Please model this.
Amino acid sequence: MLRGISDSEMGMLIAGATILRTRLTKEGVLLAESLDLSIPRLDGQYDYVPLELSKLIKIFQKDNRPTDAAFTMVWLHSTRALNALEIRVFGREMWAELTRGFPYISLGFQQISELLGTDMRRKQFLDAEFIPIGLEPNT
Model:
């Protein structure tokens, strides 16, 4: 479905997903280790993270917050791909699409700032071009 999204829309998706990742990491829902295959894992160690993200998506959908649900889906599909070797290729394909929005991240933060009426400065999210370790797109 990401193939149908314009590059500038992808920038907003990445900006929103970055804001959400920052918040969920601080809250302990999305562990940094669950987005990094370079950190040694025990089998099943991070299996619960996709379950928690899935619950959060359902809450966002129930509360009529589809944009927040979409931001969360980036991390749900990323953690699922990192947890299951057989779907990791799909995670890499997803990130190949998402990286199209990297040049438009600043615009995405600006749009979110305008929607929320807050100041979302790009410098607050210097790691917005973060790609989970293990899901780097094939070149």
Summary: The longest helix spans residues 7-26. Residues 2-37+44-125 form one domain. The chain has a mean pLDDT of 90.
